[in-house]
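User: I'm writing a tutorial on reading structure tokens. Could you give me a worked example: one chain, its sequence, then its tokens, then a sentence or two explaining what the tokens reveal?
Assistant: Sure. Here is the example chain.
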Amino acid sequence: MKGILSYGAYIPYNRLQRIKLKEFFGTSVFAGEKAVASFDEDSVSMGVEAAYDCLGGLHEKTVNSVYFSTTSGPYKEKSSVPTIVRALDLGANVQGIELAHSLRSGTSAILAANLEETTLVIASDCRNGAPTGTNEQVFGDGAAALLLGSGENVIARIVDGCTLQEEIVGEWRSQSDAFTQNWEERFISGVFLQNVTEAVTTFIKKNDITLDSIAKVIISGPGHRSYLQAAKKLGFKPEQIQDSLLTSVGAAGTAHAPMLLVSSLEEAEPGDRILLLNFAEGTDILLFEVTDAITNLPKRNGVKGHLSIKNNELSYSDYAKWRGIIEVEPPRRPEVDRPSAPAMYRNYNQNLGFYGSKCVACGSPQFPKQRVCIQCQAKDQMEDYRFVGQTAKIATYTIDYLAASPASPSFWAVIDFHNGGRIICEVTDCSKDEIEIGMEVEMSFRRLYEAKGIHNYFWKARPKR
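And here are its predicted structure tokens:
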């Protein structure tokens, strides 16, 4: 049996209520809110978080391939897969493939995955919409991860899948564009409805199934309500339509269809059939059938868990600063130097994989890596020790209003890990009223900064919720 072995998702902690766009610009807005990646997050860091949610309780070393899909990668020319592989502590011989440029690349990765091996598909996006436009309201940030393969632990087998290509200039962003552009919605919606209807009609006939046999239909396409029009035209009942997440998360680019699939799997029962349709320059179609193994999958945060963890008091001005939409006076500090490529290379295992050392003589973990044990002073008796996945508590902290930060004040804390080891690190996704001594935290992969075009990543602590 071949199909999905596990799933995971990530939705940023910060949300922008759309009413704040109306307050800022005086324009009409859609209902709800959208998820917003923080200043220290991007498509790579969100993808890593979704992957950890997916791989929880599983043995990471069994992953043979990693497919990463995004339209908003940190680099126009440089792969992000090696960064993700290091952060996930996967083997160096893992095959890595990056898919980009199309909002179908998330589902295309599922279709392209070699199910004879264990493949981790990660879809993540963090797109900018131009101020006052519909895209700014609709676009949200998020990531999803699916572990694909074969065996008795498949929770949803892939019954069939296909693609219908359709050349259309409906939504695009050229190399020189700062924001996504769109053609008139009536034109795009018309092509979308025609394309999806033809594709689904052929697909259903080929697989000899009826609409009534589908428990949930997932439709990801252009516009704010086009998916409802498509579902109605195809003949699906309202209760069969998967919630689009547009009012709570927004349209998450390449991650949107996979996130809807994760959301559907969270509520699925054995025997349910899930039909996924993803439109962008054509249509990807996938049919899944949920198996009994889904009842044995350990609980994930998924979409449902992340929806309940949020700060929806984000101001539009902070959002615009984080995304570079408005230019602000730079900090009156020396300019940040470009990180040294040789130094980064030497420390990737420590900084991305979050490896410290553990004294063989006394068993004391320590970070960063040491030659001399800080407890028993044994010299050169260390073994690699990974801190990721461990919970910790704040021993002491400071709230810094003077440090140059896109989200002042910044929080710095001394963290004691439950299994031993102490570090000093920044605390994120936290308010000054929330942080306290003894608070439990967990580590989160984040983007530290960008300097001269080089992106630097490390780990921060966040409240364990």
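What the tokens reveal: Residues 79 and 98 are 7 Å apart (CA to CA). The first strand starts at residue 2 and ends at 10.
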